[in-house]
Specification:
With about 350 residues, the protein is an alpha/beta fold. The protein is built from twelve helices and ten strands. The protein binds 2-deoxy-2-amino glucitol-6-phosphate.
C-alpha cells in the first residue's frame, strides 16, 4: 500500500500532487465536434450532478455566464424529478464514478423527455457512458481517496475546454500554460490556516462569482475529511442570516483574489472581523491590504482570473487535507462515505 502511495502519506495527498498533469491531459483532450455543435444550437444546457460534481457544474454555469450566451441550469440530481428538463435542452451529467444512482436516474428522465445527453466521467465504460449520447472523459486516472480532488480539477478542465470551444473569442487570457499555476499552488504554505481550521467546530467558506462554487467545494472537502461543520456561502448572503453565528470561535475562509469582486470582498471581510470572526483570507500575492484585514493570509501567485481560480481550488484542497492531518483523521476513508453511491 505504501508503495502505491508513491512516497506520500495518503492517497489524497498524492492525488492533489497529480493535478497539474491531470489538468493538462484533460484540458488538451479533444472534444467531439458534434457535441460542441449540439451545445451551440441548444436552447439551454442543464447540468445534473451530486456533491463535488455538482460544485463543478455550478462553476461551469458561472464560466458560461461570463463568456457565452447559452443559459445553463444546474440541478442536484436527486431533486431532478421535481424539475422537468425542457425539450431542446442538452443535459450534461457530471459523475466521477459514472455509477451514481441519483445522477443516472435523472439522466434517464431527461432521455425520456427527448433531450440530448452527455456525461463528464472519469470511468470509461461506467454505467453512465451506456446511457448518454456523448461521453466526455476526464483523464484523472483512478482516484483512490474517497474525497474527490484530482477528479474535480479534471471536471473543471473539461468544462474549461468546452468553454474554449464554444466561446473562444470571448476568453481573453492565454490558456496554453495554465496548468503551471497548479504546480505553483502546490508550493503554497497553508499550515497556519490549517491550524486555525483544525481547532474550530464550525467554519464558513465565502466567495463571490466563480469563488462561490469554489467555496462550496472547499467547505465540502473539509467537512468530508475532518468532520468539522463547514458551510460554503455566497459572501453577500452571509448578512442574510448566518452572520448571527459569527463569533471568535467561527473562522471564515474568505476567497479574495484581486478580481472584479475584490473591493466588495474586502469590505465583507471587515464586516466579519467586526463580529469577532477570525478570517483566513485566500488572496493574490502582492496584495498588501489583505494583511491589514485578515488574521491569516494565504497567497496564490498572481496569474490570470482562470489561473488564480485553479490555484485557489488546489489551495483549498490542501487546507482541508492538512487540517485532517492535524486532527489525525482517516483521510482516505472518512467515516460513512463511499466512493460511489449506487442507491437512491
Ligand atoms: C466527493 O468528495 C464526494 N465523495 C461526493 O460528494 C461525490 O462527489 C458525489 O457522491 C458524486 O459522486 P460522482 O461524481 O461519482 O457521481
Amino acid at each position: 500500500d505504501s508503495a502505491r502511495k508513491g512516497g506520500f502519506d495518503h492517497y489524497m495527498q498524492k492525488e492533489i500532487y497529480e493535478e497539474p498533469d491531470v489538468f493538462y491531459r484533460t484540458f488538451n483532450s479533444e472534444i467531439d465536434p458534434d457535441f460542441i455543435s449540439e451545445l451551440k444550437s441548444a436552447e439551454e444546457i442543464c447540468v445534473i450532478a451530486c456533491g463535488t460534481s455538482y460544485n463543478a457544474g455550478l462553476l461551469f454555469r458561472y464560466l458560461m455566464e461570463m463568456h457565452c450566451d447559452t443559459p445553463v441550469r444546474v440541478e442536484v440530481a436527486s431533486e431532478c424529478r421535481f424539475f422537468r428538463p425542457r425539450r431542446g435542452s442538452v443535459v450534461i451529467a457530471v459523475t466521477q464514478s459514472g455509477e451514481t444512482a441519483d445522477t443516472i436516474a435523472a439522466l434517464n428522465m431527461a432521455k425520456a423527455f427527448g433531450c440530448t445527453t452527455a456525461a463528464v466521467t472519469n470511468v470509461v465504460g461506467s454505467s453512465v457512458t451506456r446511457v448518454v449520447d456523448y461521453s466526455l472523459c476526464t483523464r484523472a486516472g483512478p482516484e483512490i481517496s474517497v474525497a474527490a480532488t484530482k477528479s474535480y480539477t479534471a471536471q473543471v478542465a473539461v468544462f474549461m475546454s468546452v468553454l474554449r470551444e464554444l466561446c473562444n473569442g470571448s476568453i481573453k487570457e492565454d490558456l496554453d500554460e495554465i496548468h503551471k499555476v497548479i504546480e505553483d499552488a502546490l508550493l503554497v504554505d497553508v499550515s497556519e490556516g490549517a491550524e486555525m481550521c483544525a481547532g474550530a467546530s464550525d467554519i464558513f467558506y465565502v466567495g463571490r462569482g466563480l469563488y462561490y462554487p469554489v467555496s462550496l467545494e472547499g467547505a465540502l472537502k473539509i467537512k468530508e475529511i475532518t468532520y468539522i461543520h463547514a458551510e460554503g456561502y455566497a459572501a453577500g448572503e452571509l448578512k442574510h442570516g448566518p452572520i448571527s453565528l459569527l463569533c471568535e470561535e467561527t473562522p471564515i475562509v474568505a476567497v479574495c483574489t484581486m478580481d472584479v469582486s475584490y473591493p466588495v470582498m474586502l469590505s465583507n471581510i471587515k464586516e466579519m472581523k467586526a463580529r469577532g470572526a477570525p478570517v483566513i483570507a485566500v488572496g493574490t500575492e502582492g496584495d498588501e491590504d489583505l494583511d491589514d484585514v485578515a488574521d491569516v493570509c494565504i497567497y496564490v501567485k498572481k496569474s490570470t482570473p482562470l489561473g488564480e481560480m485553479l490555484a485557489v481550488i488546489v489551495v483549498l484542497q490542501m487546507l482541508a487535507y492538512q487540517s485532517a492531518v492535524i486532527l489525525g483523521r482517516d483521510i482516505d476513508k472518512p467515516r460513512n462515505l463511499a466512493k460511489s453511491v449506487t442507491v437512491i
